[in-house]
User: Fold this.
Amino acid sequence: MTTIDLHGKTGVVFGVANHSSIAWAIAQALHDAGVNLAVVYQSERLKDRVEKLVEGWDNVTLLECDVTDDANIKNVFDEMGKRFGSLSIAIHSVAYAHKEDLDGEFSSTSRKGFQDALDISAYSLLPVARYAAPLMTEGGSILAVTFEASQRVYPGYNVMGTAKAALENEVRQIASDLGQDNIRINAVSAGPLDTLSSRAISHYRDMKRIHRERSPMRRNITAEEVAKTALFLLSDMASGITGEIVHVDTGYNIMGI
Ligand SMILES: NC(=O)c1ccc[n+]([C@@H]2O[C@H](COP(=O)([O-])OP(=O)(O)OC[C@H]3O[C@@H](n4cnc5c(N)ncnc54)[C@H](O)[C@@H]3O)[C@@H](O)[C@H]2O)c1
Assistant:
């Protein structure tokens, strides 16, 4: 993969569950670019798998963090501070909704289901930015991963569409907060990719097929394409870009029908 030189930078990636995670594609791109990385996984259950993924990497830190607890998130950044002193890059590639809230009528979403989806998939970006920013003493770049269901209705995506709308709004508000400290934040809006999370969405297969059939480029994207755009946004090549939602979707979002 063509790369950008990020040697000397430090970064943290939230959301690696397995080899198909978007976070893993981004982590690999950052590692290849020379970033000193911390890879964050949700729970003990994922530890072995994530350890296997990074086998052979000499400059990697593995940390566990459930983002429903602010203290856990703070702990990740405290560790980053202790190990590296400062931070240049933070990736938020985390989402969750209960399976029953990813099907049927949106108005049937339970209050608890709504709260959990918004808490994990949207709120969690706030503490990530809050605790990352003080470590970004020489400026920095934060990246979130979103989906076009923030803007348009994708039956089956349901409450996750609401979470993505919140997440994208947060990207703009955080960009406004942190811009004067030379800290940028953007989101990549990715087309459908086969991952653990997408498998939980009803109609995912149709969504993927329709993207392939109707997008200007008549194909689906790859995780590597998301990672390449992430690398660009996280690097100095994108030094004037903040608060943006960049589509990596072979152009699907521009189509009317
Ligand atoms: N796969 C797609 O088609 C697609 C498209 C656009 C956007 N996205 C977004 O990409 C991001 C990554 O998803 P993915 O598709 O790579 O799937 P994934 O399942 O590999 O990644 C989701 C991650 O969220 C983590 N997570 C869930 N609850 C958590 C919690 N309480 N604490 C900490 N971590 C938690 C999971 O452990 C997992 O690592 C998500 O924001 C998702 O909405 C995915």
The radius of gyration is 17 Å. The chain has a mean pLDDT of 97. The domain at 10-247 is CATH 3.40.50.720 (Rossmann fold). Residues 15-17, 21-23, 42, 65-68, 93-96, 120, 145-147, 190, 192-193, 195-198 surround nicotinamide-adenine-dinucleotide (CB under 6 Å).
